[in-house]
Design brief:
Blueprint: E1 7-8, H1 13-19, E2 36-37, H2 40-51, E3 63-70, H3 78-92, E4 98-102, H4 110-113, E5 131-133, E6 136-140, H5 156-168, E7 175-181, H6 188-196, E8 201-206, H7 210-225, E9 230-241, E10 248-249, H8 256-263, E11 268-274, H9 276-283, H10 288-291, H11 296-301
Parallel strand pairs: 3-7, 3-8, 4-6, 4-7, 8-9, 9-11
Antiparallel strand pairs: 1-2, 5-6, 9-10
């Protein structure tokens, strides 16, 4: 469904939490509400932003709903979560059109995890065409560099320009969901995204470790300050599972994200173990959702969106 400025979908946090389905537990739940006309409150919010000198948020052409997957700290499995979230949304309803935007300019992970490589072609409108695998449209800076080993050494303004191009100069539509894999931190990219496009919700990814929880809390507060609804917390690497005997060990601590979610009045929408199969399938470009949909590791992920 193409998106117009006067017609948008809204994700309510409680509805989203029930949408985040236990694909891994094979539970089919209700879908998001249908598109609704823009409310007066939305128009008032736009006027308030303009009065404060902030840019008006313009939807991405052809994209219905935008969900960002973020973390305060790097290395907590944010990209793995973003990929499996996008694939889960597609698995929930095959008729839905889903895309992934890799907004981590310095460290793009989506090309490897989705087993994709450039070049990127332009259509007749001179828009970049997303690369597609597993029926998911993907775009990343990793597609636009010749050698994946080459670093991107850019100052902030160049990164912001690249983000704008990935948002506005890509033929995304039509899409029901665009999942955005955000870079770690609370800096320029997060502000650019939240101030320029309507974001329907943010998912915070963290491990149970104290140092990761500190930054997850900062990430949550940042989205609240820029008026982006936080849909919930995903606790990744919650416990190590031995592939031989099945023994579980909480090597990063226990229930750290659960306690953080309670403190910040957020639901836990995912509890993902640390298991070698999840890592191997991500590194091989065959995410566990599609490569091992019936494995015991998938059923234990308990990713309830």
């Amino acid at each position: 469904m193409a998106l117009t400025v006067c017609s948008r979908s809204f994700i309510n946090r409680s509805r989203f939490s029930s949408l985040v389905y236990s694909y891994f537990n094979k539970n089919i739940v209700q879908m998001l509400p249908p598109c609704q006309a823009a409310s007066n409150s939305t128009k008032d919010a736009d006027q308030s932003r303009m009065q404060r000198g902030l840019p008006k948020k313009l939807p991405i052409g052809g994209v219905d709903q935008v969900i960002v997957v973020a973390s305060g700290k790097g290395g907590v499995g944010k990209s793995t979560t973003a990929v499996n979230l996008a694939l889960s949304l597609k698995e929930l309803d095959k008729t839905k059109l889903v895309g992934i935007l890799d907004a981590d300019v310095y460290g793009p992970s989506i090309p490897k995890m989705m087993n994709l490589k450039g070049p990127v072609h332009l259509n007749k409108q001179q828009l970049m065409m997303p690369l597609v695998n597993y029926d998911i449209k993907c775009m990343s800076m990793g597609f636009l560099i010749e050698d994946e080993k080459d670093p991107i050494v850019w100052r902030g303004l160049m990164v912001m320009s690249a983000i704008q191009r990935l948002l506005r100069q890509v033929s995304w539509g039509p899409l029901d969901y665009l999942v955005v894999d955000m870079p770690p931190g609370t800096g320029d990219v997060q502000l650019t995204m939240s101030q320029n496009i309507p974001i329907d919700g943010a998912v915070i990814v963290t491990t149970p470790q104290d140092v990761a929880l500190l930054d997850a809390r900062k990430g949550t507060e940042m989205f609240r300050k820029v008026e982006v609804p936080v849909l919930g917390v995903v606790q990744n690497m919650s416990a190590y599972e031995c592939p031989k005997c099945g023994h579980t060990e909480h090597i990063f601590g226990k229930d750290g994200a659960t306690n953080l979610a309670k403190e910040m009045n957020l639901p836990i929408i995912g509890d993902i173990p640390l298991h070698i199969k999840i890592r191997e399938t991500s590194d091989s470009g065959a995410p566990i959702i599609v490569s091992h949909p019936n494995s015991s590791q998938v059923t234990k992920v308990n990713f309830v969106i």
